[in-house]
């Protein structure tokens, strides 16, 4: 086929208001729900079943089918698995049935560790006589990822084959936005339901939200282009790659693949640890949930819709340039927040420290640094509290403190309410501890000898705050030995008693009557109001997150349209699977280095500058793969 330029562009409203766009809503919703189930709902489920964080981290490996889906994509191009439905719809139907069954089944199994029959040399390498793991849950989540990745192959090919070139931008933008909205089911609704009903019902209800996609599959028609399948499996495996390289030439084809890998690399790495960054510069979980999550979601949705509409006029190439620049420069907003915020503090590994050694380190660090910076920090109370918070958070057990301060209501609270209480108490205690530190920072702290039984789980470290011509003030630090699963996290402070006044005890006195009168829900709502958000700080956060999300929405719309346009109609499934797998590789592999980069580069500011510079090569490749003045490539004759 000879490529022909697309010269006519219909009005934007005609491209938006048609049946194909309605189909894109259903494809996006069906595609986004299972991925966000793996990202949001499964970790929450495992956490409530008291699975260790180390094991929960291992479950991320279940997402590998999204990287390797191009390996079996040729099967979807070659074989028609349900002849009555057609090649694309048949695979969509089978994977959606599989997803409904697997998601519903997940809530019925146990996550109790089962012994794995590992060979002796591997057990010796692991330093254990046996190895237990919730392998049934892991196998089933891997199966969900496999069904989801396979469904994506079929949906991407189906969507490419029903959309004309001039509708690729708006069609993919609508698909991506519906994808994000589909993620709200497991990421929000299912978590709310988990506080009110058993997990078996939660997963069954979540699975039921796959039914609209299944109904869409049964009602739509098979695309005309999908009827010409490769005649042999060899043709399905080899020809998509040979066609791609022969069409572009080896050098140009490699440039296209490099562009797909690099275009979103900087932005993806920038947001890999976004929540941790917001916390490190002093935002509470309440502020993050209120501002960052809402600004991020809706600005991304708006950006995707605007990007699709503007692309009708701009064309894909120019959209990649303009939207890509917004995407790149939005990274500088995070660098600005890091520059405005306090100095990044990296906590050392304190699992090996004795309780008195830990308390001496924490107390002396807090007192010495606060006193040295007292005048500077006094000008900005919010940054001062953040400064204290950064130094104390790794060594404090706010969950234990919250349980003591709200008992017996704590045992009646749901897991979500417990987290809300702990977050509120965290913010309140840092506020009050900040005042204590400032009051006594210029005094001497003398520690008392500590005697501890080897098997003790809780200890008290005592000290005296002394100053010439002033009465000594006694201070006690209460510590608990923290073990998360099999990980020994060392000692953590859960209460501080200054001159006989317990920090946790003071909260308990003020909480008791209110919790009894208002009930746990009213009490949690009241607690949230005790830590007033900083308006200007939240505005800055919303601005940065919103601009970045807008850039992502704009850039993603153009990027997905470019990948769809680059495929050949005869090999849509395999070539799109290759492109989207390559796009997902930075998210899965490179982003795992984000924490090491932040600490290794001395903090967030340098890290965000690195992300900014990593985004530039992808933009420079546009000179070759999508020149500003070139005509739109089309494979429709």
Describe the structure.
There is one protein chain. The protein is of the alpha+beta class and 637 residues long. Among the domains are: 1-229, Growth Hormone, Chain: A; 355-529, Nuclear Transport Factor 2, Chain: A, CATH 3.10.450.710. Helix content is 67%, strand content 7%. The protein has helices spanning 12-16, 19-48, 53-58, 65-68, 73-78, 87-106, 120-126, 135-162, 168-194, 199-208, 211-219, 233-248, 250-262, 265-270, 274-280, 285-314, 316-329, 331-340, 355-372, 374-378, 381-392, 398-406, 409-412, 415-440, 503-528, 535-566, 572-588, 594-600, 604-620, 622-625; strands at residues 114-115, 132-133, 444-447, 458-466, 473-484, 487-498, 501-502. The strands form two sheets. A five-stranded antiparallel sheet has the order 3-4-5-6-7. Strands 1-2 form a two-stranded antiparallel ribbon. A hairpin with a 6-residue loop joins strand 4 (458-466) and strand 5. The longest helix is centred in the C-terminal third of the chain and has 32 residues, at 535-566. The protein is elongated, with a radius of gyration of 28 Å. Mean pLDDT is 76; it is low at 1-8, 126-130, 343-347 and 632-637.
């Amino acid at each position: 086929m000879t490529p022909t330029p697309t010269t006519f562009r219909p009005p934007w409203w005609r491209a938006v208001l048609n049946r194909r766009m309605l189909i894109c809503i259903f494809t996006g919703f069906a595609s986004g729900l299972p991925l966000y189930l793996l990202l949001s709902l499964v970790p929450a489920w495992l956490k409530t079943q008291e699975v260790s964080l180390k094991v929960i981290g291992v479950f991320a490996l279940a997402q590998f089918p999204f990287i390797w889906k191009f390996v079996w994509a040729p099967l979807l191009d070659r074989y028609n698995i349900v002849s009555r439905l057609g090649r694309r719809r048949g695979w969509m139907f089978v994977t959606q049935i599989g997803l409904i069954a697997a998601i519903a089944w997940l809530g019925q199994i146990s996550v109790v560790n089962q012994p794995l029959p590992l060979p002796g040399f591997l057990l010796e390498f692991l330093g254990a006589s046996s190895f237990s793991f919730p392998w049934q849950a892991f196998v089933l989540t891997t199966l969900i990822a496999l069904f989801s990745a396979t469904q994506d192959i079929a949906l991407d090919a189906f969507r490419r084959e029903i959309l004309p070139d001039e509708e690729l931008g708006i069609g993919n933008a609508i698909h991506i936005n519906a994808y994000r909205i589909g993620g709200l089911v497991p990421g929000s609704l299912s978590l709310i339901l988990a506080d009110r009903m058993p997990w078996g019902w939660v997963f069954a209800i979540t699975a039921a939200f796959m039914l609209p996609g299944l109904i869409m599959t049964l009602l739509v028609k098979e695309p005309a282009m999908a009827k010409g399948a490769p005649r042999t499996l060899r043709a399905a495996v080899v020809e998509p790659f040979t066609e791609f390289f022969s069409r572009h030439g080896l050098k140009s084809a490699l440039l296209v693949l490099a562009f797909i890998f690099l275009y979103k690399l900087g932005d993806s790495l920038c947001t890999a640890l976004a929540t941790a960054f917001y916390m490190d510069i002093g935002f509470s979980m309440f502020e993050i949930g209120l501002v960052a999550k809402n600004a991020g979601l809706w600005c991304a949705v708006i950006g995707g819709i605007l990007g699709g509409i503007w692309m009708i006029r701009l064309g894909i190439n120019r959209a990649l340039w303009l939207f890509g620049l917004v995407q790149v420069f939005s990274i500088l907003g995070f660098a600005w927040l890091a520059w405005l915020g306090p100095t990044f503090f990296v906590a050392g590994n304190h699992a090996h420290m004795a309780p008195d050694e830990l308390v001496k380190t924490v107390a002396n660090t807090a007192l010495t640094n606060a006193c040295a910076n007292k005048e500077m920090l006094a000008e900005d109370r919010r940054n001062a509290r953040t400064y204290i918070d950064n130094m104390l958070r790794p060594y404090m057990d706010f969950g234990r403190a919250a349980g003591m301060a709200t008992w017996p209501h704590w045992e009646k609270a749901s897991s979500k309410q417990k987290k809300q209480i702990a977050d509120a108490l965290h913010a309140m205690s840092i506020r009050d501890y900040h005042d204590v530190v400032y009051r006594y920072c210029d005094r001497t702290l003398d520690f008392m000898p500590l005697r501890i039984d080897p098997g003790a789980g809780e200890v008290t470290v005592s000290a005296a705050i002394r100053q010439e011509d002033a009465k000594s003030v006694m201070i006690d630090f209460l510590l608990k030995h923290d073990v998360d699963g099999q990980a020994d996290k060392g000692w953590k402070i859960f209460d501080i008693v200054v001159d006989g006044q317990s920090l946790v005890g003071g909260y308990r006195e003020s909480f008791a009557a209110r919790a009894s009168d208002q009930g746990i829900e009213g009490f949690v709502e009241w607690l949230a109001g005790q830590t007033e958000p900083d308006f200007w700080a939240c505005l800055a956060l919303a601005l940065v997150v919103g601009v970045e999300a807008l850039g992502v929405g704009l850039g993603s719309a153009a990027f997905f349209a470019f990948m769809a346009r680059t495929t050949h109609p005869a090999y849509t499934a395999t070539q799109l699977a290759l492109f989207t797998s390559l796009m997902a590789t930075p998210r899965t592999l490179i982003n795992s280095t984000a924490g090491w980069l932040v600490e290794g580069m001395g903090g967030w500011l340098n890290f965000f500058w690195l992300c900014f510079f990593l985004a530039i090569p992808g933009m420079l490749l546009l000179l070759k793969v999508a020149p500003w003045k070139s005509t739109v490539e089309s494979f429709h004759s």
